[in-house]
Amino acid sequence: MKKIFFGLIIFGVVGEFTNAAILEPEWTEFCPPRYCDSYENTFSKDATYWYKRRLQFQNALSKCSAYKDAEQDNCYAELRAAEERKNKVWDVRQEEKYRTTEYNRAYNKERMEFYSINQILETIKK
Question: What DSSP string describes 59-112?
């Protein structure tokens, strides 16, 4: 009986310590690896996007660091949720970008085929 009681106390104390503090979020949790250290780049809109997001993340993280205990945990949780929402929007935009690129590629291929057929027909007519 003492072992069970002692085990419950230990489990409760360990549970309190693990639930007590939410770890500080890290930028690498949210950023694709190739953009984690990116800087503003006139040739890459994606790199610039991730650079600006990193700055926003660091500002929000510094604001969260000013809080204590439960307020800080709530701030970290809200920051994580906001970054995850931004990542979902990023994923949707990347998918749209991919679909647009594929559509344009298919359209240009059809246009070139049509042009080639017209050139052959024009050559035959002469």
Answer: HHHHHHHTS-HHHHHHHHHHHHHHHHHHHHHHHHHHHHHHHHHHHHHHHHHHHH
